[in-house]
Amino acid sequence: MTAETSQTLDRGLRVLKLLADTDHGLTVTELSNKLGVNRTVVYRLLATLEQHALVRRDLGGRARVGLGVLRLGRQVHPLVREAALPALRSLAEDVGATAHLTLVDGTEALAVAVVEPSWTDYHVAYRTGFRHPLDKGAAGRAILAGRGPDSERGPGFVLTHGELEAGASGAAAPVLGVNGIEGSVGVVMLSETVPEQVGHRVVRAADEAAAALR
After folding, report:
1. Looking at residue 191, what is its pLDDT?
2. One of this protein's GO BP terms (predicted)?
3. 139/99 same-domain check
4. What is the DSSP code (8-state) at residue 176?
5. Are residues 77 and 61 in the same domain?
6. In a domain, 132, yes or no
């Protein structure tokens, strides 16, 4: 810690990070051990975070991340969208299909940015705010693939057909290496299949978006 930083704030942020990294929550004792501070300090940190809905405690006393974190997270979407738009515009124009950036929102995939090509006669209408399960559609499947080790990612992109809209095919690749962001970049088009070269172009766009977000 330096003279310009707040020890209490630092500890509070560390509590949130520790809770975000576990699915089953942590007790006061566990947090005390991980932070290297006494239980009284942890109680005070949790009480303050609870007041802002950033932490909640279940009946067993285990602390978990609160819904207030989700509300804060939603405010990040405009910043993420702005950073990713150049990569999406280039992808949409090159492929001639609707390009999108999709992020994880709970157990769903949420489209936070959509760019349509300017030169095609028709294309799939895909709207910002569109949600779907993570295990359906190229965007969600690419996010799930990005959670696995490199050796299991194959070509780096996922192709699907008709999973979210009849007659539409999709290609998506995970956005990797960006702290705090789990998402994918993809395209959706009216076709029976997506050419493999489009998949590789989507991977490049995902890499460009990731670089802009770092």
Report:
1. 92
2. negative regulation of DNA-templated transcription
3. yes
4. -
5. no
6. yes
Rounded CA separation 28/195 (Å): 53
Closest of 197, 135, 184 to residue 164, by C-alpha:
135
In a domain? residue 20? yes
Among 72-76, 109-113, 153-157, 173-177, the range scoring the smallest mean pLDDT is 72-76
Tell me how far CA of residue 39 lies from CA of 129, 181, 206, in angstroms. 42, 32, 44
Q: Which two tokens stand for residue 26?
A: 């942590």
Q: Provide the pLDDT for residue 148.
A: 85
Task: Answer for the pair 185, 155: CB distance below 8 angstroms, yes or no.
Answer: no
**So what's the pLDDT on residue 1?**
56
| 116-122: average pLDDT | 91
Task: Name the domain count of the chain.
Answer: 2
The runs of H, that is alpha helices, within 52-105 are 68-74, 77-95
159 and 135 fall within a common domain: yes
- Residues 11, 17: Cα–Cα separation, whole Å: 10
CATH number at residue 12: 1.10.10.10
Domain of residue 12 covers 7-65
In this structure, what CATH number is given to the domain that contains residue 121?
3.30.450.40
- Counting other chains too, the contacts that 46-55 makes at CB distance below 8 Å and 24 or more residues apart are 46/15, 48/12, 49/12, 49/15, 49/16, 54/16, 55/15, 55/16, 55/19
Q: How far apart are CA 66 and CA 15, in angstroms?
A: 12
Q: Flag whether 1 is in a domain.
A: no
When pLDDT is cut at 50, 70 and 90, the band that residue 73 belongs to is: low
The yes-or-no verdict on residue 44 having pLDDT over 70 is yes
